[in-house]
Amino acid sequence: MKKNVFLFFLALFAVLITGCQNDESDFPASDNPTILLSTKEIYGAPNRKFEIKAALADDLGLKSVRIQIPELFLDKTITFGTDPLIKSYDLSYFFEIPANRGTSEAFKIKLTVTDVSRNAVDENINLRLDGEFSAPAISMITPKEGAVILLSSSNEMPVNFVVNDDSGIDFIHVKCEALDIDEMIQLQGSPQSYTFNKTYTLPVTAANYVLTITARDKFVIPNTGTLNINVVATNEYPAIYLCDQPKGTNLTTDAVGVPMYFHEKNGQDFEFKYYADKDNKEIYFLGQESDFAPHCFGLNETGNLVDDVVSTPIILPTKGYYIIKVNPNTLVYSATKYTPSSKVWADIANGLWHDVEAQRRPFVSVCGAGIQGADWDTWTAWAQTGLHLANNPDNPYQLIGEYVLTGTMEATFTGQWWSPSWRLIKNGIATMSPGENGNAKYPAAPGTYKVILDTELERAFITTKK
């Protein structure tokens, strides 16, 4: 009896051992797996992800790949299935370097690839944390985006910009196919800063041009930056803007309405409606939207209108609404105060959502994209009370508030079921619906913005909160 029990357990043990051995490897001998690295040197930086890329292969089948950086506590194994066998694999693994590591540190990344025949091979990759990943910074002096060159005054286009890069600049390329501009400047000695300054001659025919500036740095893995500048060469101004900001103000940091687009145009006669929020308000007229140069219309020492970047502002003597007319060709302007007669949207802070229209009280909030808390549902506009606008106590025609913008923005200022509503179209125009369709998209840096909806002007002003 004891002998039979012994033989039983002996047989069972043999079966288990055989089973384990079969589980361990049922595969014949094969060649070693191969690792083809995309690079033997990876540059990273603290608090930044880097990518490990390699092509793995085996003539029979891959079993696993192990990725190790002991100092950074990285030990990752990727295991492959055997049904079917995986003979090739493109490794792409991302890892974020901890923020507390130093930029002078360096490590070894160890890759171990094992195949189903239990052959294993290792490869090491150097990891350095002194990487430089910023493209060269191109600072445009002239022309600025959307610049207007008045051909009747001059057909010359000065191009002036500065390029900066910490690792040194390799080359700068200035190109405009329509103007046969194709200049490659190969820099010697890897300077960290370079200033380009050259004047080009434009054809006498009006046209729009795109000037493309490209700069590449001298880092081991080069970074390239590109800037496109749209330039309008014209025989007359397509638009004039009213600007109430001091000279030197960056006119590209606000989201909407600065400077203000004209209201009516007849030939080169431009008309604005404008609200001066205080006595002795200072304004200029600009021939372009993004800068005070090259066309800035103000007053000279004799009080006449001139197109000169050193001109002094026009003064609107008292607070209130004005009709302002200007002709940039004849250099004649007028400013006449008026009293608005449009509807006043009063007491909107006490609005009420109600399915029965007779019991509803108007509120004004916002629907749109790129605005924190907003979507395209007017119920959301009502429910998100932080999006509601309020009456400006100093001006019954203005509704005011603050919004957090998260990026490119589009908006309709609205009450319940789009009544009332003002659609924000291009150039800061906020038309009361029914009106023009097509909400415009406005690029905006994330942050908190002051909002003014002027229902008399049908303009919106969304400006960075100072």
From TrEMBL:
First and last residue of the signal peptide: 1-22
UniProt entry tagged with the keyword Signal: yes
Key words of the record: Signal
Protein name in the entry: DUF1735 domain-containing protein
